[in-house]
Design the sequence.
């Protein structure tokens, strides 16, 4: 009996152990799932413009918190996007003054081009999300929902 108890304890310990999985593999799997679930790609058949937003949490925020499509007029969205894009690109050009990891890429947005409602809607909401999440102010306009 004395030899059976230690044997049972050893078997129970072995059965309760988890298999080891390297942390890098776990992080890669999380990154891939975040990229797939938090990538918003907008393209339209009527025009040749596309916007791709890769930001963890944006997709969920857009679905749950942002105003629904149709709430803002396209003219409103275009005017706000022009202001935000200009501020964004100025910060992109000044990596010594602003965090370059936040403003990595320049946004090519022409105010004379009609990008359609959907592109303007998603871009505007990304700017609002970005300002709220990272506590940034791209203009004197207060980011609100």
Sequence:
């Amino acid at each position: 009996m004395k030899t059976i108890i230690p044997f049972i304890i050893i078997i129970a310990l072995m059965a309760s152990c988890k298999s080891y999985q390297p942390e890098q593999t776990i992080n890669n799997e999380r990154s891939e799932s975040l990229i797939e679930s938090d990538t918003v790609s907008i393209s339209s058949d009527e025009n040749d413009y596309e916007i791709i937003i890769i930001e963890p949490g944006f997709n969920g925020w857009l679905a749950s918190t942002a105003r629904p499509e149709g709430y803002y007029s396209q003219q409103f969205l275009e005017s706000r996007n022009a202001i935000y894009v200009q501020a964004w690109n100025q910060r992109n050009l000044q990596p010594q003054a602003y965090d370059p990891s936040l403003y990595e890429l320049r946004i090519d947005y022409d105010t004379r081009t009609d990008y359609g409602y959907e592109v303007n809607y998603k871009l505007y909401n990304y700017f609002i999300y970005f300002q709220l999440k990272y506590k940034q102010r791209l203009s004197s306009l207060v980011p609100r929902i």
Q: What stands out?
A: Confidence is low (pLDDT under 50) at residues 30-36. The longest strand covers residues 39-43. The two ends are 70 Å apart (CA to CA).
